[in-house]
């Protein structure tokens, strides 16, 4: 009996080790999103990669076990049914299994919490609902991040640069190597601001100033989408011309924006806006 | 039913007021109720986009439908002192007609549930096919976006109805009384009510397109739902009915399992399927009222203009998100816990081994039940609600993989050096393990906040929950149908067709849903009718395999219809040579479950033990007494 | 087999060690016996009360959540006149009286004392009065829920949800009163009546909490 146990276990173990190594090598080849345009994005890429690597041996092991037992432990079809050995559980195996899963869970949770609490993701966890600082000062210093308000409405996003007099743009342009504080809000219903390549997603709620942090690292284009169902044109609520540009280009761009909007009477800047109740947008 | 059963309280001399109640009176009264409700709402109450009328119409129609079916007879008889028909008196109608009428027999209710659920699954499946057809092209050339969102919403809500009742409804109602050795449910009327709430819910949901459909998906997030037209009232009433059905069926199941176990049926001998139903019923009983309260709030917002979810008027959309997911996360375990129960129940019978680590498995199921109350905010990681609590919810979510891992451990321990007979139900169980593994592992990706930021609301999460629900729960349901069909209907399902069905479904399911993980990772949000043209290749691949997946159901349908209605050959009473008690009873099942309450003498999984006893003493009643 | 007919409890058959606790009851009695039904009703009622408690938890959660957020400073605006506190007092008293009287009535019935039925009539009148007062309050709110505000919303919704359940409970109470007439089946109902009393007591408790929350917080 025990010898049979050992033979099966040894075969499985060897096959698992070999296949896991192969699986991990393959998993390492896969390019995972969202890329490295921002610090957050590269952190997420790294975390996704790591979780893929951790889950590969688990996946391989379970599938191997299912396939192996389906072949090694089956009865011949049509034969008289035989009963298997009446094992009712092995305490040590159970404890070991629970301990292993618990350790994996703890590692994953620890990594996630560490990543969440890292300085790049904001000074503290409870950043929601804070009001903005005074607008009008030039941002992008280490001590004071650039503040951009993202306003979702059916069915586009508007961006207001708090530090530049609250000027508005329909495309998000950010300077490179800058700390950015995105203040996301909505004027009608729920939206979700998803800048894919930047690794940023946050819901836009009416009456809420939802804050998320961002550190840009590479220039390039990025896509903005809405990731929360918001009515019939939800699928078209995307903008593919978001840009991360150099500091100098950003200064030029924002200056021209300020100039072009100098004559316009923009609504007063506020941390969030209370829309008309029950405005039927359809 | 033999004459000595039950307690005939009516003397033949007494006057009996006969209220005719059947399906036809139910439908007539429902139509009348709808008319009354609409007119009442539109004429005398507030008019806000005529929501009041539609809402009241649905409510009146549902209530009067239940009255017409016969649920008011008992209270009215009690109120006016008419003679009461005892619960034990048996059904009013005989033959096939009783399957279309109020029946208090748990066997009839189980069959009613099974057929209703398969029908609803067909509606939901057609919806899925239409969705995939639209996604063949990256723009909206096939369906207009509002129609597309209606399709998505109808498909999701219908499938949630199915998933929440498709195991506890048919198999729980049918087999739990057998497995615990009783002739009755604790509350047969509540049991029947839990079924008869389902057809109105399905019909009301199907009525949504008449009023323009609704664009909210199954989550119904306010304030989008406050904007939505009259079609959304279907969601409110339909989901409320399902919530009540969940709660009522849960109360019935819990009380039955707690109080009506036969002698010898100790908690540690309870079949693991009953444990799965038990834990799901705990969640259903206590989570569904939260949903009902939230839906009442939405109904008030849409009719008498309160402002629960209007932030400019002192409400908050966060309130709905919290209430909905506080119900919604236990809800997804209502889907999967009985599926765990089915898989762990079937594996020992086909592996011919005792369930390995029975007590650990129970701890696993109850652990999931407990933990599922503390994870709901992982659906709201990016919503901005209480970001300080995100580490806690991340941790509790990942904790759930420990009891879920136990389920896998128990399955593997049972398979270890077993003598597996590779039948169709066993194939579906192994398929379940494979699919649910992928679903579970992708869930770990979603549970970590930083990676969830990218994956949340994308096709990745859509693929994740389809792996757990379709690949998990639906596979378990199909395994259960193949396994228990001979006992439920007296006919075997065809083995060859079943094997073709399994491989067809398993392969097409994985080929259809695996690429959706990639689609999600490549920047495609859920519930969109347009997408990046570069993703068209992947989407077309998915659509084609989805059609093939749908076609696999043809084998299933043909198999069921042919075997049930056209195959004259009676199934043997124990075709699987399984040990558990339902297989020790004759086929077809007698009207009365047990002539005498059985005494259980051992557990249901004692395979391979040379000294084992029969599972229960089913002998004739002792001549004493 | 014949002893199973009717609602008489069969002679308890001595059972082996196997039967312990609750399953022993079903083993001893025919499955539709009143004793079995009474026990099931008691367990089921506790389940239902637990479920209903969570229903009301959702409403209280809504109250405190909206109050904490106070969006647009519109949770409790100045034009919302605080409702009349004496209304709540009456409701609490009525429901408490209902539950208490009802309890007494059920016990009296159990002992088959003649005054039980009269107490039940009193309880029924109290329940109907309670509904009447609540409807009166809805007619004289002192604010318009349509004008918005979190407090008016929760007030109207919570009270309405509670009222619907009270109406159902009073209807059921009426069935008990109807049953208590001479010739009613006195064997089954006292146990069911007491079990039903739990639910009335629960509703009274909810109205008390609602009163404290809605009128004083």
Description of the molecule:
Chain A has four helices and ten strands, in the order αααββββββββββα. Chain A has helices at 2-29, 39-72, 91-117, 247-260, and strands at residues 146-153, 156-161, 167-169, 173-175, 179-186, 191-195, 200-204, 210-215, 220-226, 238-245. In chain A, helix 1 (2-29) runs antiparallel to helix 2 (39-72). The N and C termini of chain A lie far apart (70 Å). Mean pLDDT of chain A is 83; it is low at 122-142. Chain B has 625 residues and is mostly helical. Helices cover 62% and strands 1% of the residues of chain B. Chain B is built from 20 helices and two strands. In chain B, strands 1-2 form a two-stranded antiparallel ribbon. In chain B, helix 4 (106-134) runs antiparallel to helix 5 (145-165), helix 6 (168-180) runs parallel beside helix 10 and helix 6 (168-180) runs antiparallel to helix 11. The two termini of chain B are 23 Å apart. Chain C is mainly α. Chain C has six helices and no strands. Chain C has helices at 22-28, 34-69, 85-110, 116-139, 150-179, 189-216. In chain C, helix 2 packs antiparallel against helix 5 and helix 2 (34-69) runs parallel beside helix 6. The model of chain C is unreliable at 1-21 (pLDDT under 50). Classes of the chains: A alpha+beta (282), B mainly alpha (625), C mainly alpha (217). Chains A and B meet through helix 1, helix 2, helix 3, strand 7 and strand 9 of A and helix 5, helix 9, helix 12, helix 13 and helix 14 of B.
Name its key features.
heterotrimer; B: mainly alpha; two-stranded antiparallel sheet; 20 helices; disordered N terminus
Assembly level? heterotrimer
Rounded mean pLDDT score of chain A: 83
Q: State the end-to-end CA separation of chain A.
A: 70 Å
Largest interface between protein chains, with number of residues from each side: A-B, 98 and 93 residues
Which stretches of chain A are poorly predicted, pLDDT < 50 over at least 5 residues?
A: 122-142
Provide the spatial order of strands within the biggest beta sheet of chain A.
3-2-1-5-8
Distance between the termini of chain C: 62 Å
H/E element string of chain A? Answer: HHHEEEEEEEEEEH
Q: What is the count of β-strands of chain C? A: 0
Count helical runs of chain C.
6
Q: What's the overall geometry of chain A?
A: elongated
Order of helices and strands of chain C: HHHHHH
Largest sheet properties of chain A = 5 strands, mixed
Rg of chain A, nearest Å: 27 Å
């Amino acid at each position: 009996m025990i010898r049979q146990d050992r033979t099966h276990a040894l075969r499985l173990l060897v096959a698992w080790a070999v296949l896991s190594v192969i699986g991990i090598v393959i998993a390492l080849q896969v390019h995972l999103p969202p890329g490295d345009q921002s610090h957050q994005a590269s952190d997420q890429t790294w975390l996704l990669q790591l979780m893929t690597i951790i889950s590969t041996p688990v996946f391989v092991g379970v599938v191997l076990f299912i396939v192996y037992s389906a072949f090694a432990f089956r009865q011949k079809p049509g034969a008289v049914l035989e009963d298997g050995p009446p094992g009712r559980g092995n305490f040590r195996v159970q404890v070991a299994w629970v301990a292993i899963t618990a350790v994996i869970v703890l590692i994953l949770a620890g990594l996630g919490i560490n990543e969440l609490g890292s300085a790049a993701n904001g000074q503290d966890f409870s950043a929601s609902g804070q009001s903005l600082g005074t607008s009008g000062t030039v941002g992008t210093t280490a001590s004071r991040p650039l503040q951009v308000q993202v306003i979702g409405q059916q069915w586009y996003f508007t961006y207001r640069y708090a530090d530049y007099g609250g000027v508005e743009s329909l495309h998000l342009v950010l300077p490179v190597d800058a700390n950015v504080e995105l203040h996301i809000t909505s004027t009608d219903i729920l939206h979700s601001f998803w800048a894919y390549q930047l690794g940023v997603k946050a819901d836009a709620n009416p009456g809420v100033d939802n804050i998320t942090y961002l550190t840009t690292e590479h220039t390039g284009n990025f896509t903005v989408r809405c990731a929360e169902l918001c009515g019939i044109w939800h699928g078209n609520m995307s903008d593919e011309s978001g840009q991360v540009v150099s500091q100098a280009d950003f200064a030029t761009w924002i200056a021209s924006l300020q100039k072009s909007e100098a004559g316009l009477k923009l609504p007063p800047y506020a941390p969030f806006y209370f829309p008309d109740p029950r405005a039927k947008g359809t | 039913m033999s004459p000595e059963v039950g307690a005939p309280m009516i003397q033949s001399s007494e006057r009996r007021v006969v209220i005719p109640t059947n399906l036809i009176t139910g439908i007539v009264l429902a139509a009348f109720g709808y008319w009354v409700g609409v007119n009442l709402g539109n004429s005398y109450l507030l008019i806000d986009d005529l929501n009041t009328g539609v809402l009241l119409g649905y409510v009146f129609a549902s209530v009067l439908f239940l009255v017409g079916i016969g649920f008011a007879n008992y209270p009215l008889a009690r109120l006016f002192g008419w003679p009461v028909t005892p619960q034990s008196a048996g059904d009013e109608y005989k033959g096939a007609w009783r399957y279309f009428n109020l029946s208090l027999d748990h066997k009839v209710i189980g069959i009613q549930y099974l057929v209703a659920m398969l029908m609803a699954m067909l509606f939901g499946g057609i919806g899925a096919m239409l969705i995939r057809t639209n996604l063949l092209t990256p723009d909206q050339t096939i369906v207009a976006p509002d129609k597309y969102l209606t399709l998505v919403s109808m498909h999701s809500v219908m499938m949630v109805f199915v998933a929440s009742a498709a195991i506890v409804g048919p198999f729980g109602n049918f087999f739990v009384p057998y497995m615990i050795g009783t002739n009755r449910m604790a509350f047969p009327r509540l049991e029947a009510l839990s079924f008869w709430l389902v057809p109105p819910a399905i019909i009301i949901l199907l009525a949504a397109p008449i009023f323009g459909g609704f664009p909210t998906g199954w989550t119904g997030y306010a304030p989008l739902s406050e904007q939505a037209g009259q079609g959304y009232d279907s969601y409110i009433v339909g989901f409320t009915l399902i919530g009540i059905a969940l709660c009522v069926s849960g109360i019935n199941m819990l009380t039955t399992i707690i109080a009506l176990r036969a002698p010898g049926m100790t908690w540690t001998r309870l079949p693991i399927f009953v444990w799965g139903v038990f834990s799901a019923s705990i969640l259903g009983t206590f989570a569904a009222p939260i949903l009902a309260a939230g839906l009442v709030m939405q109904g008030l917002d849409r009719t008498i203009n309160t402002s629960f979810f209007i932030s400019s008027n002192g409400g908050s959309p966060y309130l709905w998100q919290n209430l909905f997911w506080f119900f919604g996360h236990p809800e997804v375990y209502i889907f999967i816990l009985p599926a765990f129960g089915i898989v762990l129940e079937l594996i020992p019978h086909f592996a011919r081994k005792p369930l390995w680590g029975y007590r650990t498995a129970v701890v696993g199921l109850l652990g999931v039940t407990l933990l599922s109350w503390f994870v709901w905010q992982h659906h709201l990681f990016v919503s901005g609600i209480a970001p300080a609590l995100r580490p806690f919810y991340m941790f509790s979510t990942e904790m759930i993989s420990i009891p879920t891992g136990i389920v896998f451990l128990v399955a593997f321990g049972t398979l270890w050096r077993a003598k597996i007979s590779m039948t169709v139900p066993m194939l579906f169980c192994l398929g379940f393990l494979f699919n649910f593994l992928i679903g579970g592992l992708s869930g770990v990706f979603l549970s970590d906040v930083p990676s969830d930021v990218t994956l949340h609301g994308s096709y990745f999460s859509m693929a994740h929950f389809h792996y757990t629900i379709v690949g998990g729960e639906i596979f378990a349901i199909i395994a259960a149908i193949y396994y228990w069909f001979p006992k439920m209907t007296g006919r075997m399902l065809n083995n060859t067709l079943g094997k073709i069905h399994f491989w067809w479904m398993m392969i097409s399911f994985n080929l259809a849903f695996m690429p959706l993980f990639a689609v999600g990772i490549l920047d495609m949000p859920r519930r969109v009718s347009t997408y990046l043209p570069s993703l068209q290749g992947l989407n077309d691949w998915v659509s084609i395999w989805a059609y093939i997946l749908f076609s696999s159901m043809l084998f299933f349908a043909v198999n069921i219809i042919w075997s049930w209605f056209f195959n004259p050959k009676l199934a043997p009473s124990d075709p699987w040579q399984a040990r558990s008690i339902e297989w020790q009873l004759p086929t077809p099942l007698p009207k009365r479950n047990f002539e005498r309450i059985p005494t259980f003498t051992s557990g249901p999984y004692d395979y391979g033990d040379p000294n084992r006893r029969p599972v229960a003493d089913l002998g004739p009643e002792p001549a004493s007494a | 087999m014949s002893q199973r007919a009717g609602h008489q409890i069969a002679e308890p058959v001595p059972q082996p060690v196997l039967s312990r606790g609750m399953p022993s009851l079903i083993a001893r009695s025919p499955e539709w016996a009143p004793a079995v039904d009474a026990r099931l009703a008691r367990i089921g009622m506790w389940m239902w009360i637990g479920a209903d408690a969570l229903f009301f938890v959702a409403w209280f959660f809504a109250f405190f959540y909206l109050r904490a957020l106070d969006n647009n400073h519109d949770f409790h605006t100045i034009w919302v006149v605080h409702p009349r506190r004496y209304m709540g007092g009456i409701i609490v008293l009525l429901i408490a009286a209902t539950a208490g009287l009802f309890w007494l009535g059920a016990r009296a019935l159990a002992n088959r004392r003649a005054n039980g039925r009269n107490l039940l009539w009193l309880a029924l009148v109290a329940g109907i009065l309670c509904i009447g007062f609540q409807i009166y309050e809805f007619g004289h709110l002192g604010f318009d829920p349509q004008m918005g505000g979190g407090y008016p919303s929760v007030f109207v919704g919570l009270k309405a949800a509670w009222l619907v359940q009270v109406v159902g409970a009073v209807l059921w109470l009426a069935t008990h009163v109807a049953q208590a007439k001479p010739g009613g089946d006195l064997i089954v109902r006292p146990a069911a009546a007491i079990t039903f009393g739990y639910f009335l007591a629960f509703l009274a408790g909810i109205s008390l909490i609602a009163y404290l929350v809605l009128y004083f917080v």
